Amino acid sequence: MKRSVPQEVLDVHSRLRKAGFEAYLVGGCVRDLLLNREPKDWDITTNAKPEEIQPLYEETFYENAYGTVGVVTQSENPRLKVIEVTPYRIEGEYSNARHPDDVTWANNLSDDLKRRDFTINAIAYDPETDTVVDEHNGQEDIKKKVVASVGDPNERFAEDALRMLRAIRIAAELDFALDGNTAQGIARNASKLGDISRERVRDELIRILMSDRPLQALYVAQKLGILKYIIPELEEGIGCAQNQAHSFDVFEHLMRSLQHAADKKWPLEVRLAALLHDVGKPATRRFSEDKKDWTFYGHDVVSARMAKKILSELKFSKEVIAKVEILVRWHMFFSDPDTVTLTAVRRLISRVGAENMPDLVNLRVCDRIGTGRPKAHPFRLRKYMSMIDEAMRDPVSVAMLKIDGNRIMEVGEKAGPRIGWVLHALLEEVLDDPAKNSEEYLENRTQELLKLSDEALKKVGEAGKDRRAEEDAAAVKVLRDKHHVS
Ligand code: ATP
Ligand code: MG
Known about the structure:
Beta Polymerase, domain 2; Hypothetical protein af1432; two-stranded antiparallel sheet; elongated; binds adenosine-5'-triphosphate
């Protein structure tokens, strides 16, 4: 095993040993070495205290309340740039399941291993003597491919409820199963996940979504009762039958769409959008006597609002939220053959942003595969894609107009909001007819537009925006009370 430990890690380790301390690689890196996976980061545990660790290295920083010292190496590899050295410790009393109250040093390795979450994460390795210390049968569990708590799962989850989600995340990443008692412990303590900080939950959720098996992981989370404390809205889709084009209920459809995004290794935003694109369906479902089938009018608008609320509560970044909201809002575009003219495609690109179009198409593919239809790129979608390519050559944003704010000021307007209104009014015209994007035409139109009063000009300038807001408001109104979306 020693052969697989990078030189940088061996160096950090041997300094501690030469200074007379005990030191072991521990946690995820030992687990990953035993599995022949590349560790995400390297952790060393030692009987030295922070003030004894720091003088042994040229560059260190004292990281946090857990006594972890970051040792900075010369490596270019981001996984090796900082090696974390942490003194043996036990955790103090837990006043609630939110976070460990205080940190107490432990005297020996055994005590440190006991406080770790899972047996597979509680193996220590000394590369100098090539010895493995495995007091909780972690190696056996690695062979059996199970995630099992160290000690009584019930107690361990009560101490720190995040461990429940970590168990599911680690199982998803490694393609392991949950040990039976551990799964029972999760079912019993599920509600405690509600007390955990949303940032910690978010980070584990991201890793579940970015794993190769998010469908399996979220099904397990649902079955064991913790999905309600992550994204409760998803559970409304369980048993929510769809129209005849769909074989699955809303929940299964979302899970399958997400899994396809993972199979394709698409980025986080596409995976989140796949997971949430129909989250508003249960709330918009109505039976149509005409069609003798269920309808979901406005579910794209409602799902986008709900996605924004869900992701905000989970403290995702503004950028991620904005992108997912846009993708969900427009995911229905390609399914409606009536809207598809080149002008409509240009308007779509102008709303969605050219940079988001490839992800929107990918979301559409996830949606299709998620219905159980085998073909990712049927004829119609291929046709839309070629229309997108064509429309992308035409102007779809104010910046692409053959006139700008400076030129409008030269034509005869002073700096102020009227400039923006003119530009947007011109863009609306050019979206309808790209041939109008010539200096001559736009300057003539500018002169006419500038004759309008502020009020009238604002109205034409914001016509596009207003129309969208009205459409959205109509769809959301019905549901506002039920779902508290705004
Ligand atoms: P990865 O590095 O792939 O995220 P990891 O298992 O190393 O996986 P880390 O978050 O780096 O996870 O944690 C390092 C080690 O610290 C774990 O292997 C485990 O031994 C211990 N640990 C982390 N979080 C907890 C926790 N909430 N409760 C108990 N032990 C934990
Ligand atoms: Mg780690």
